[in-house]
Amino acid sequence: MGKIAYLFPGQGAQKAGMGKDFYENSEASRRIFDKAGGLLGLDMKALCFEKNEDLDRTEFTQAAMVTTSLAMMAEIDRRREAGASIRRPDVTAGLSLGEYCAMAAAGAMDVMDAITLVRKRGIFMEEAVPAGEGAMAAVLAMKAEDVSQVLSSIPEVWIANYNCPGQLVISGRKGAVEEAGAALRAAGAKRVLPLNVSGPFHSPLLKGAGEKLAGQLVPVRLSVPEIPYVTNVTAGYVKDTENMKEYLKKQVYSPVKWQQSVEAMAADGVDTFVEIGPGRTLTSFVKKIVKGAVLINVETWEDLEKLEEGGLS
Predict the structure, then answer these.
(1) Catalytic residue flag (residue 96)
(2) Has this prediction a pTM greater than 0.90?
C-alpha cells in the first residue's frame, strides 16, 4: 500500500457556500469557523456561506479559504480520533496559501496562527502593488523552458506557478504580462488566458509584502512537524523548523513549484492524493503529473465517506 498526501487548495478555488454543510453538521468544524471569525473580527459565515464581493478580494479570500479547509480537516481529525478507519496522511502540501493549511495539518503551526497570518498576508499582498498595475496569465501547452526563454527578453514578468505539464502561470507588470502573452502565442503557446486577480502574485514585485509578513512571523511559535509537509519554494520535504519562516516569507514573491512538489511526493511513494477544500483544482493537476494516482477530493459533507470507502481505510 502506497503513501497518502493531503492537499490544500489556494486562492481561486473559493466560492460562496463553501464549508456551510460542515458548519451545520460538525461541532469541530463550527468551532473553527466561529473562533476564526471572532479572532479576525469578521463575519466568517457571511463571508464564506453567502454570495458577496468580499470573498474574491485577496485580503478576505485567504482567511476564508484557510478557515474553510482547516474546518473540514478538523472534522476529519475528529472522526479518526473517534475510531473511524481513516488513515493519517504521510505528507501534506498546499498550493500557495494552502501551504498554511498543510503546515497546520502536519502539526507545524497552530490552526489559529495559520488563519491569523494569512489574513495579514492577504492584506500585505493586496497593498503591495496598486490595483491595475499588476497582472497574471495562464500559459497553456508550452514547455517551461520555452516560456522562460521568451520571458528572458521581457522585463518585469516572471513564471509564478508551475502547475502541471502544459500549464504555467506568469506574473508581473500589466503591460509586461500583455507583451509576454503576445510573444508566447507567437512562440507556440496554445492559449494565454488573463487571470482575474488583483495583483502580480508570486513575483518579485511582492518582495515588500514578504518582508512585512516576515515581521509578523517573528513571534509565531512553530513546531517540528508530526509528519513532513512540502514547501512551494523548494518543492522539498520540511521535517524541522529551521527554515520554515524563511520559506513562508519567500513564498509570497517566489514561484509556486507545484508540479515539482507532486513529483517529489510521488518519488517518495505517494500514490493517493486527497484534496481538502473547495474545488478540484489540485486533483486535476495531479492527474496530469502522476499517471494512475488515486485522487479523492473532500469538498462537501457527503465527500467524507470517500475517506473510508475510497481505499483510505
Answers:
(1) yes
(2) yes
